[in-house]
């Protein structure tokens, strides 16, 4: 029972930390747009941003105030690398068994 409570508590805190830097949350402005590294971060948390966006209309998957090409490059690298990396791990683990 204690393990389940710890897991739920950790999950709740983890989700709060991740969504605090979600696109559209107000951390980027016209004067201080999101750059390459924020693009990477937003790409990694895109699935979570999508789910949270259903409940909070201010959260988006993609930051509107960005630096342009560099933000896009970071975002797509994270999307492709993050999700593609999981499929490689799954394929190698199935071959090992």
Summarize the structure.
This protein is mostly helical.
What does this 3D model show about the protein?
The structure is a single chain. The chain is an all-alpha fold and 97 residues long. Helix content is 67%, strand content 0%. The protein has helices at residues 2-19, 36-44, 46-55, 69-96.
Shape: globular
Please tell me the overall pLDDT. Answer: 79
Q: Alpha-carbon distance between the termini?
A: 32 Å
| Largest sheet properties | none
Query: Which oligomeric form is depicted?
Result: single chain
Rg to the nearest angstrom?
Answer: 16 Å
Q: What is the chain-wise order of helices and strands? A: HHHH
Which structural class is indicated by helix and strand composition?
mainly alpha
Percent helix, as a range, is: 55-70%
Helical region count?
4
User: Per DSSP, what share of the residues sits in E-state strands of 2 or more residues?
Assistant: under 5%
- Total beta strand runs: 0
**Low-confidence segments:** none
Describe the protein's topology.
Elements: H1 2-19, H2 36-44, H3 46-55, H4 69-96
Helix pairs in contact: 2-4
Which tags fit this structure?
single chain; 97 residues; mainly alpha; 4 helices
